[in-house]
Amino acid sequence: MSFALPERGAPWSDIEPRMRELAKGDVKWRDGRTGMYIFNAGPEVEHVQKTAYAMFASENGLGPAAFPSLAQMEREVVAAGLSLLNAPPGAAGVMSSGGTDSIFLAVKTARDHARAKRGLNSGLNIVAPSSVHPAFDKACMVMDIEMRRIPVKGYLADPAAMEAAIDANTLMLVGSAPCFPFGLIDPIDELGAVAERRGVWLHVDACVGAYIAPFVRMNGAKLPAFDFAVPAVSSISGDLHKYGYASKGASTVLFRSETLKQFLEFDAGPWPLGRMITPTLAGTRPGGAIAAAWAVMQHLGVEGYRQKQGEVTQAREKIEAGVRKLGFEVLGKPQLGIVSFAHPKVDALRVYAQMHHRGWFTAALVDPRALHLMLSPKHNEVAHEYLADLEASLGAVTDEQFASKYAG
């Protein structure tokens, strides 16, 4: 395929229909046909996020003195996150571009803290459950840190096995709230006890859960402790563009204290302009992402988030009940917006292929083989459609297996 910049520019009236034509092959996410990538809270929220993003699309979060509006919005977004996650007085944080960015920044902060306070300069390692996000592996690749993935127990982090893997060079202990594969909240309380005993940094990856779990709890669910209410938790990553319903890419990385956050900063230079000090790895920081996150938070408020997250919970409960009737087994006891389920007699990946053929763009696990959904409020409206297509897909795979068994 070859492509060159056109010699002469075209008006928007010509460009827009071409872009719409390109998008025809994309998943129909506004119809609820995807269980990943998109967090569909409805057209009203979509309008707020996109309008706010457009208002500040040219502004740059790199220059808080030039754009004090963005600095103020970021402070308020971070403060809201800290409040929701039971942060103590003096806690601090920043916005980043996404979950991988937030996790990278947390690892960098913990590393620099360990260098300064523990004298650890080489041979570092991170101990985490095998279900933890690969963003930690990426951070380890960049920073020359060993990643120790410990097998889970009942789909949850195994605190005893993880403690056994800790040594004098362990930089960080990790738990998820929830983990992406299974949608389950690791025993953060128990991991906190390990972290306190062994004197290591405890990070909670709540990229999925930070902006849904507090509201699910407000709606009456009994969730295990997972945030700064656990005294040993040093940092938390939480994505705004997931269940915060902000535009891509917006996340937060939060620290128990300003003292810990000081190890986050990048102080680079000198160069002809002096030193360049930034709160994250990025230089330019899109103003639209900051503005959209702030606007959606203002638009929804606690009441709006409780309603949206209640719809997610209802969708998950419908899906769980429906897949069980079809003979699937739900992995663990999910309480938030992710659910994974396997079938004892049918290859889930073959069912996945059938569902994809019917227009559903979701995820699948390979170990164990299972179907995976990350649900949005929209799915509460279309759960019956998903289950009907799942039943048809299951039937098609079952027929295939029967025909194959008795062929010839």
CATH architecture of the largest domain: 3-Layer(aba) Sandwich
Percentage beta strand: 15-25%
N-C termini distance: 45 Å
The CATH first-level class of the largest domain comes to: Alpha Beta
Helix content: 40-55%
Question: CATH H-level name of the largest domain... which superfamily?
Answer: Type I PLP-dependent aspartate aminotransferase-like (Major domain)
Could you please describe the fold and organization of this structure?
With 408 residues, the chain is an alpha/beta fold. The protein has two domains: 50-296, Type I PLP-dependent aspartate aminotransferase-like (Major domain) (Aspartate Aminotransferase, domain 2, 3-Layer(aba) Sandwich); 305-397, Aspartate Aminotransferase, domain 1 (Alpha-Beta Complex), CATH 3.90.1150. 42% of the residues lie in helices and 16% in strands. It contains twelve helices and 13 strands. It has helices at residues 12-22, 43-55, 68-84, 99-117, 135-143, 159-164, 188-198, 213-218, 258-261, 287-325, 348-357, 379-405, and strands at 92-96, 125-129, 146-150, 170-176, 201-205, 233-239, 251-255, 266-271, 274-278, 329-330, 338-342, 363-366, 369-374. A seven-stranded mixed sheet has the order 1-7-6-5-4-2-3, with helices on both faces. β5 (201-205), α8 and β6 (233-239) form a beta-alpha-beta unit. α2 packs antiparallel against α10, α3 packs parallel to α10 (287-325) and α11 crosses α12 (379-405). The two termini are 45 Å apart. The mean pLDDT is 94.
